[in-house]
Design a protein that fits this description.
Subcellular location: Membrane
CATH topology of the largest domain: Rossmann fold
Membrane topology: Multi-pass membrane protein
Helix content: 40-55%
CATH superfamily of the largest domain: P-loop containing nucleotide triphosphate hydrolases
Radius of gyration: 33 Å
Protein name: ABC transporter domain-containing protein
GO molecular function, one term: ATP binding
Number of strands: 12
Largest sheet: 6 strands, mixed
Strand content: 5-15%
Keywords: ATP-binding, Membrane, Nucleotide-binding, Transmembrane, Transmembrane helix, Transport
């Protein structure tokens, strides 16, 4: 059995001069010290993971998931991490990438330079098992945005060249201009989507590439092609590749330089396939002809169904410990000058602006194509506007229609805000992409929230305009441009507050059904305490002093009511009483009777009766803006705390 037949027979297409120049520039940005003492490592560069351990505490005490694992992987080399279910593969990969904190004594070094969480995120890329992408973007757009969000500092032409190179290397030319796919629109296949995920990790020029089950869900042929593509790029660009992998074919397994087999969190075997063959033969468990070496090693350490295999694990542990003594020594801590210690350069202010601009551009493309983001809602708001226009059509100026006008304003604020839950699926998709890109060090929570806020504004405003134009004049609300635009402005602020509440809940509880239920509950709560179903002064004091006054619907509903009624006069549509007076729905003031006579009631009389008279429109607008700002800050904090 050859150690690695594909390592010497790679037929990768040589990169173009432009891409080679870009690669050299990126390597210069991430330059560090080489290690001439490790001759067995390709290129003289090495990533060292030393004494990594991790445990969790349960009812039965602490359980060690990873137990003192150490390994060295060279530049351009590939390490496969295998093991039965529960062996600690994913936990080890997370420890290596600093997604979990190793116990005391564990450390990670790149060419002798000690890495931390922040430095690792700048020199590595982590490709997760789930393929999280914006489904309405094409393959080329998805990889291109990942490149532009990185701190490479490359021009647009260099970025396009790099994207083309990745697409060609991963065999994605045939689907480069196809969309990823959404629940309502079929896209690329699962294997192609897996390669796109790998491409978004490779396009940022990582020094170390972590892959979590890169062949999951792929047939053996597709799995081999994906890993062969990764190997070609890793060799060409000197990328260290570390992958957890499940049941690979022998052709796929031969692409790896080293194979690590975990059993109960410990290293049962670490070496090449040739060494695996020798080890198994020495233990009296030779690999049968035409049998997959990986399957054979896993069968030796799979104790879940056969306790007698614990003897195999003990023998492998002993042999592995002896083999480690014969390996070249690890890098000692004092070999490198401290002045050359690897440090992450702070991104420039211009880069932060470019990141926000790129995120805004991507959000515009996403929202304009994604029917689940705003397309469905625009249809619902147009339908609601038509519903109001045909049911409350031309209300007129009878006092019996005053309560109908209040219903219009309540419906406009409450039910349109309630429909903000329709944006939860789109935000959850956007959030998943953000988490992957944030964990890979592309950007943080602040640019994400800022870009989301900027792009949400015009789309929500269009929703508010569409609804208002359809129903405002058909219902016969207060005429005049000033009143219409005030109605539009406060309706928009209410929608924006409801939208922010929905994304905040989705960020805290990123499960669609749970987020939907919580949003529905919160909107129902605000409806009950805003002052329509029960007058504010009749609310129990406990609810009145906090829930009513922190309710964004309170300020929008009361302002829309005042905007419509003040300046209008309504006639009492009832028979006169024997004394010549009228029984109006709302009592007229003496000033109204003196000015307009009997059987008339002014809009100001209604406002005074409802105790809305103290409204200051600019102050209420400022309060609504303040509520939105507070909710947006809470969204930012939720995303930051969720990571911690």
């Amino acid at each position: 059995m050859s150690e690695n037949p594909t390592a010497s027979s790679s037929t990768s297409t040589p990169p173009t001069p432009e891409v080679m120049t870009a690669t050299l520039e990126m390597q210069a940005l991430h330059s560090d010290v080489s290690d001439p003492q490790i001759a067995h490592v390709k290129g003289g560069s090495v990533a060292t993971f030393s004494h990594l351990s991790y445990e969790v505490k349960g009812k039965d005490g602490a359980q060690r998931l990873v137990d003192d694992v150490s390994v060295k992987v060279g530049q351009g080399e590939m390490l496969a991490i295998m093991g039965p279910s529960g062996a600690g593969k994913s936990t080890l990969l997370d420890l290596m990438a600093f997604r979990k904190r190793a116990m005391d004594g564990g450390e990670v070094r790149l060419n002798g330079n000690l890495l931390s969480n922040s430095t690792m995120s700048h020199v590595s890329s982590y490709v997760e098992q789930d393929d999280e992408h914006l489904g309405v973007l094409t393959v080329r757009e998805t990889i291109s945005y990942a490149s532009r969000l990185s701190a490479s500092g490359f021009s647009r032409s260099q970025t396009r060249q790099r994207v083309d190179e990745i697409i060609q290397a991963l065999g994605l030319q045939s689907c480069a201009n196809q969309k990823i796919g959404t629940p309502i629109q079929r896209g690329i296949s699962g294997g192609q989507k897996r390669r796109v995920t790998v491409g978004t990790g490779l396009v940022t020029y990582p020094r170390i590439l972590f892959l979590d089950e890169p062949t999951s869900g792929l047939d053996s042929s597709s799995a081999r092609e994906v890993m062969a593509s990764i190997r070609r790029i890793a060799e060409a660009e000197g990328i260290t590749v570390i992958a957890t992998i499940h049941a690979p074919s022998i052709e796929t397994l031969e692409l790896f330089d080293q194979l690590m087999v975990l059993a109960k969190g410990k290293v049962a075997f670490l070496g090449s396939l040739v060494e695996a063959e020798v080890r198994c033969r020495d233990l009296g468990r030779p690999i049968p002809n035409y049998h997959n070496p990986g399957d054979h090693l896993l069968d030796l350490v799979a104790v879940d169904f056969d306790d007698s295999k614990k003897e195999n694990i003990a023998a492998l542990y002993s042999a592995q410990t002896a083999a480690n003594w014969n390996r070249p020594p690890s890098i000692e801590h004092g070999e490198f000058d401290e002045s050359e210690k690897y440090q992450v350069k702070r991104a420039s202010v211009g880069h932060h602006f470019r990141v926000v601009g790129t995120l805004c551009e991507r959000n515009v493309v996403n929202y304009s194509r994604n029917l689940l983001a705003y397309g469905v809602r625009m249809g619902m708001y147009a339908g609601m506007g038509l519903l109001l226009a045909t049911i409350w059509i031309r209300l007129g100026h009878s006092d019996g229609k005053i309560n109908d006008r209040l219903s219009v304003h309540f419906f406009s604020v409450a039910f349109l805000a309630f429909m903000s839950v329709a944006g939860i699926p789109a935000f959850l998709e956007e959030r998943s992409v953000f988490l992957r890109e944030r964990n890979n060090g592309l950007y943080g929570a602040f640019p994400f929230v800022l870009a989301n806020t900027i792009v949400t504004l015009p789309f929500l405003f269009m929703c508010a305009v569409l609804f208002s134009v359809i129903c405002y004049w058909a219902i016969g609300l207060h005429p005049g441009a000033t009143h219409f635009f005030r109605f539009l402005a406060f309706l928009f602020l209410a929608l924006f507050a409801a939208e922010t509440q929905a994304v905040l809940i989705s960020a805290i509880v990123p499960i669609f059904i749970a987020a939907l239920a919580l949003c529905a509950f919160m909107n129902g709560f605000w409806m009950c305490t805003q002052g329509y179903f029960i007058r504010a002064r009749s609310l129990p004091r406990f609810w009145y002093y906090w829930a009513h006054w922190m309710n964004y619907q309170t300020y929008a509903f009361e302002t829309l009511t005042k905007n419509d009624l003040v300046g209008e006069v309504f006639f009492c549509d009832t028979a006169k009483l024997p004394d010549g007076t009228c029984s109006c729905v709302y009592p007229p003031s003496a000033e109204t009777v003196a000015k307009y006579g009997q059987c008339m009631v002014s809009g100001q009389d209604v406002i005074d009766y409802l105790e809305f008279g103290g409204i200051n429109v600019p102050v209420y607008a400022a309060i609504l803006v303040g509520i939105i700002v507070v909710l947006r800050v809470m969204l930012y904090l939720a995303l930051v705390i969720k990571r911690k």
